[in-house]
Amino acid sequence: MWSVIQIIVPSAIAYSIPLLMGSLGGLYSERSGVTNLCIEGLMLFGCFSAAASIVKLQPIIGFNAGIVVGILVAIVCSTLLSCLHAFASINLKADQTISGTAINMLSTALSLYMAQTITGSGNITITRGIIRYNIPVLSKIPVIGKLLFSQTYWTTWVCLALWALSWFLLYKTSFGLRLRACGEHPSAVASAGVKVRKMRYIGVLLSGALSGIGGACILVTYAGEYNAGSGINGLGFLAVAALIFGQWKPLGILGSTFFFGLCMTIGNVSKVIPAFANIPSGMLSMFPYVATLIALILSSKKSSAPLASGQPF
Amino acid sequence: MAKNTVKIKKPLMEIPFIKSMIVSLTTVLLGLIVGGILIIAIGKNPIEGFQKIVFGAVSNTRRVGNTIAYATQLILVGLSVAFAFKTGLFNIGGAGQMLMGGLMASIWAHNVTFLPQPIYYLSLILVAGISGAIWGLVPGLLKAKFNVHEVVGTIMFNWIAYWIVYDAVKVFIVDPTIIVKSKPIPMQQSLRTEWLASITQHSYFNIGFFIAIIAVVVIWFILEKTTLGFNLKAVGSNRYCAEYAGIKVNRSIVISMGIAGCLAGLAGLTYFLGFSNIMEIGKSPSEGFDGIAVALLGNSNPLGVFISALFFGMLKMGKGSLTAIGIPTEIADTIIAIIIYFTATSVIIQGFWEKIIKKHSEKKLLKQAKEEK
How many domains does chain B have? Predict the structure, then answer.
């Protein structure tokens, strides 16, 4: 049993970190009052742009620097793509669900289009992802050290730091208060002299940047390739679901993304745990999606969605 | 005097059909322009590219047959999305509903070989329609009962269908030589017929197209001529108002998603038993998402859906010829996505044209006034 837990927990953490970034991005956007269903597209674009730049840059600037630059490129590209969503939903008062869907499709098609011109096949595989390592002192702690601090990716800690920073920003600063108010009652905030449109732009662009990091994390941690066929397997929508399940709160989404990460691990563990080997692989793989639906049903009664989310100002 | 009678012409932009037509054409134009820019960006000639697309889609009878055969599922998925739109719902579960409809119909086709032709076709339609309807109904129920956003719900159902197909094809209808595909369906059991193949130089053209045309008429009839259609549209335009008028909103949501799912299930039938005759595992039909573009461009009007599906069918079937001049075929999907993006902002485009037409007519009036002086 202990050996199974030892396999599952680190893997669940690895799966949940990209989800956490996507959800956190959605949190900024929805709390500022813009419905964001294009997390999937933004993450995919981050994954693609990181893959393309890492493949091009690693031979020149080296292994680690290539990954860092790749993640930065992913942030820039996804932020640029999210500008389209921000412009449509804030300036043009577009239907935000449709605009989000358009961004998703655009991201899929555009990344494929560019991947074809870059590699020819459409798939981009990076030679090596981030190397896991043990954290010096902490990994020696019994139980917890083995589960949380051994064989970790450095991106995990960066992402958790970003999560903590976001919590501080949203709940402990006046900027956060204003951003959250824009999603609840924009006209009241506007009458207090805050520029609602500017705050919403910040919200959507931050969602682009964070989703970009999430997409890049998928690539450099467990996936290792940008796959033209399956993309990121609907992870962006799982992130949106995690946001709803987490009740639009930072602590909530930390819990819910870990839960979904756990579900994804269970969907993939059949290779390592013999007891699961007899169940058809499709049944296991659909588990995260079924669990998501059940989670959404359970959390439906006490929805605390931002009041003005989805309404143009 | 006849000269002094004032003719009141209805402004062009106030006729709904013309208005939506102008907006749709503008979005298509904008999509093609941005697509052209992207082609220039990789150093190719956009005009040549668009010529290739048209060439690939309609240059001979066989290609026309294929384009129509491909447009068939776009018509049905487009209708599905449009129908849900009318109730204010966004059905992006077309892919999953197509997969379920296609899977059940394929299994049916491999096992039920004793029915006479017309009854067999009817049974296929029932099987595919009901499977698709269930796959739309459940997210509808989740939306109505538990307030699960239908976009998230239908996407989850897409992935669940994807993995069901992954297992079910292997278990029930696998091709023993290639385990990632199902056995091909023989022509007598599919929607293809000798006669239709022979008049279109052996294209994929099949009787699914006639199913799609019937569906267009039926959906138009439901929306325009029945109480059900009126109720659904009322829920779509204002939920609270409809509730106040005594319409059961939750029931309308479930019914609407059920019918939408049924249409997408039929699209799965025409796709997997007509256009293609096998199912591949690990592949989700992109038509589920293209249907959104079809519905939006057609302004959720059945006739509009029909026309825009033919347009997108041309784009998707013609894109294959692009490889000859070195342009990645994904440019077609990029153009489709851009068109959706612009239709999302159609209010602005509409305002733009209204302004221009107003300016134009004002100028005309000024000119007239000057001449009269």
Answer: 1
